Amino acid sequence: MSLDCFVAGPEQSVKEPLGVGGEDLHKWLFPLRFWYKMQGKPGGEENASNDFIEESFANIGATIMGRNMFGGHPGPWKRDNPWTGWWGKNPPYHHPVFVLTHHPREPLRLEGDNTFNFVTDGIESALEQAKRAAGAKDICLAGGASVANQYLKAGLVDRMDLSVSPFLLGAGERLFEGVTDLHGLELQRTVAAPDVTHYSFVRG
Amino acid sequence: MSLDCFVAGPEQSVKEPLGVGGEDLHKWLFPLRFWYKMQGKPGGEENASNDFIEESFANIGATIMGRNMFGGHPGPWKRDNPWTGWWGKNPPYHHPVFVLTHHPREPLRLEGDNTFNFVTDGIESALEQAKRAAGAKDICLAGGASVANQYLKAGLVDRMDLSVSPFLLGAGERLFEGVTDLHGLELQRTVAAPDVTHYSFVRG
Q1: B6-76+89-203: what fold?
Q2: Most buried of A56, A82, B125, B145, CB within 10 angstroms?
Q3: What is the distance between the alpha carbons of residues A160 and A190, in angstroms, rounded to a whole number?
Q4: Contact predicate A26/A196, CB 8 Å
């Protein structure tokens, strides 16, 4: 997020999925080995930020995200050529993804063990389904802000990894909006890189 | 500030100057040598946070603050026994302080070279007056959020030292409210202590 807690800028669109200025939030990520690997490329920097993010995603067996993060357009799914996500034919998840939406849709199976399941009966149902899918592994709450805030408010987050980019966005999708406390999540460690600060919170 | 950018909690009052939960923002400060010294006491911890805060306040020749930080009550000053601040007979400033207010008042001279000047003609005038008073020294923009945001919006801040306490307040006085960019302030360094993260921004 930015210093002022935005995880995406304003005016999100298919052209600018992270809104105006939002991509800059992830600038620190793009040179890293973790990011290269996600694109199936060798190389990339290995540093404290890379260690942090690799550890963050080390043991994920299922992902939960909001409809806006899955993207495309608001409202009911289109019948012809429905939106299939931002990530092409072979998305980087390689495990079941649960998309919270108000609009029912059959599961979308893509290459590389990527299945997107559309959940219309709320965050607790999505969590239960993700738990069954992940087995002994962890569940990643990928975002965006709205879904993250819903889970935080409900006290359903066991660990929160936060990377703060040192600038303001001034508008957009705000993390912690309406969230008044962390329900027992306590700071475990801080990693201060030159261009980003990483925080790891765990349930105390 | 808190993770969600509040520098004071809600429901500020004479009894709770920093609002509900607001004092916890400064928990990291109370054991430090810097804080002990401010109370005229010997001792206190010397650590990375103490170095940061001592450096922050090392060369201050004048302070600017808002009426709400000076405190007491909103509206015109009372004629009998007017509010003289939170800090007793000998406040910890020991230099001229400029209080931004809509209500004119004669300067208040207290012990220990503490003079509170009440400025009714805006932030630029207060800055000019503080510059003249500080001479070659720096000016501390003490707060609260409203005055800090006004100076940030106007691009009149040359350095911003930020200490982030790792919890949420959920409501209160919000830093960066309505501030959309840092006007060239760039992160110079981050100091990650276990219970607080310090950031220093300077004009690039």
Answers
A1: Dihydrofolate Reductase, subunit A (3.40.430)
A2: B145
A3: 12
A4: no
**pLDDT confidence bin for B13, thresholds 50/70/90:** confident
Question: Concatenated DSSP letters for B81-126?
Answer: S----SS-SS-S--SEEEEE-SS----EEETTTEEEEEE-S-HHHH
pLDDT in tens, B112-148: 999 999 999 999 999 999 999 999 999 999 999 999 9
Where do the structural domains in chain A lie, given as residue ranges? 6-73+91-203
Please tell me the distance in Å from B190's CA to the nearest CA on chain A. Answer: 6
Q: Please name the fold of domain A6-73+91-203.
A: Dihydrofolate Reductase, subunit A (3.40.430)
> pLDDT tens-digit profile of B167-192?
999 999 999 999 999 999 999 999 99
Bridge partners, residue A193, by sequence: A196
Cis peptide before A204, with omega less than 30 degrees from 0? no
Summarize pLDDT for B95-118 with one digit per residue, the tens.
999 999 999 999 999 999 999 999
Phi/psi at B202 (nearest 5 deg)?
-130, 160
Query: Do A201 and B5 make contact, defined as CB atoms within 8 angstroms?
Result: no
CA distance A193 to chain B (A): 8
ipTM, interface predicted TM-score of the complex: 0.92
